[in-house]
Amino acid sequence: MSIIREHTQATLSDAWRTINIDALEEDSSVNFDTATLHPAQPETSEADVRQLTAQVRQLLRGGDAEGALRGCLEAPVYSPSSDSARDAALQTVIEVLQSIKASEMTPMLQRIYGSAGGSECLDVLMKYLNKGMAATSSASSGSAPRTPTRMTPQQTGFSQIGPRPGAPSESTGAAMSVLLSWHEKVVEVAGLGCIGRVMSDWRRV
Amino acid sequence: MAAPEVHHLFHNPIADHSFSADHKTLAIARDTAVELYSKAGNAYKLQDELKGHDKTVTSLDIAPNSGRIVSCSQDRNALVWEPTPQGYKPTLVLLRINRAATFVRWSPSETKFAVGSGDRLIAVCYFEQENDWWVSKHLKKPIRSTVTTLAWHPNSVLLAAGSTDAHARVFSSFIKGVDARPEPTAWGERLPFNTVCGEYMNNSAGWIHSVAFSPSGDALAYAAHDSSITVVYPSAPEQPPKAVISINTQLLPFMSLIWNGEAEIIAAGHDCEAFRFQGGIGGWQLSGAVEAKGRPGMGDQREESALNMFRQMDLKGKVKDDTQLKTTHQNTITMIRPYEASGDSVRKFSSSGVDGRIVIWTV
Fold first, then answer.
1. Which residue intervals correspond to the WD repeats (chain B) (predicted)?
2. Structure pTM?
3. Residues of B in contact with A120 (CB under 8 A)
4. Contact B27, B62 (CB under 8 A)
5. ipTM for the complex?
6. Residue B308 or residue A118, greater confidence
7. How far is CA B88 from the centre of its chain?
8. Given an 8 Å threshold on Cβ–Cβ distance, is B144 in contact with A38?
9. Nearest CA distance, A145 vs chain B (angstrom)
10. Closest in B144, B165, B248 to A197, CB measured
11. Sign of the alpha-carbon torsion through B183, B184, B188, B190
């Protein structure tokens, strides 16, 4: 029996290309949890985050914005199972960022970057900025269900020209502009490598 | 520092390149063929095309002593090209993989070569005299994803591999009858095939693009997609390493790295130029670019005439033509290799890029 005779109309079509061959293979990446590839992330409870927030607020009231920012960045909240803890941590970071004057940003970032472990701190800050931008841009588009059309460049908030189709409110626009100016300053200090690290990192804030 | 020697071969990406030991022949992976260039005066001229693969050639290597070329391709095959008076004669190697072969290197002893693949394994190939063919043995565990890069230890037994599961690993590829029993090293004493001598990953866990043993073999460096390089100093078998030093950079990721002695690493990649790292077990740091900036003839290429200036403004809305990068390579550097060495230190190294250039640099 030749192989050629086995060809039928069905085998000659392209349908076989849509078969997910990885699913048929036992040790392929779709058949194991990719989380097993790296050490587990520590869990942080919401209570811990509240405590951190209280400490950070106290530092802010005392006028030590740099200490507050450092406090947030040195204890990033990764806890993979608790979305609320991570959201609370993000809110704290945004609060700190909004309280820092534009003229103080660059010198502060340079001081943090120059200190021990500073590069990691700025990577964490970049993670919070990315998450913050994602959160504010989806909040700005109201409560409509997420659709692919909302993923247009304007929706991610990078366009500054004119009102966006999602018609964001004043406050989210302000939050976004704070995040964007921080983003610019962080890239100036920590370079493009920082963006690459945030994108390749498994530890999500 | 002498100016780099630039050979612009064509306008296609070069996945990998290799010089013969006498530097007269240059082999290049281009599309589905291996192109051989020979030195004519100061330039490299296309001399031969080795056709045998039917998909993109991903990697190749010339053995310095025997002159044999090994190439591997996305068609899941590796070919060994034997130099004969009538030209190169290919021999197919049965890799037994069902995904693309991604990377190939001869061992320093030239009796074996290792092929990395998308099949989550490394095929270690050696020649079997009695059957007169190349056979392969698989290093499989605990690789979880595509192997992107390989590097041999000077003893030809230990093999470092980097993979897209963000781990750099050190394996034993000891094959009875081919290898002599290796001296015990910090990586291990008894080394049966597929012993995992080390497994490392970064904090931010990027894909590994390149691995390299130091000239002594007692340290391992790897470059990952998180724009970092990491240097590992093992202490003793089964013990945690003496030091793991990670250097996060402000640059774009590095695709390839080589050691220059024990205290310097040269790495190049998406920034289109090579950078030096210096240090030792106490710590490493980025010490700057290899390429001298502001070389005459690089920045402002020629005096612009007024006519030219207004034409530029009219055509492009700007005076300066900024379509050229300030680096010699105009696109990502895919591979760097030592070109000329004295002892452990590299005096010249060569780089190939997506821009179709081969550049020979003086360190």
1. 50-82
2. 0.85
3. 203, 248
4. yes
5. 0.83
6. A118
7. 23
8. no
9. 32
10. B248
11. positive
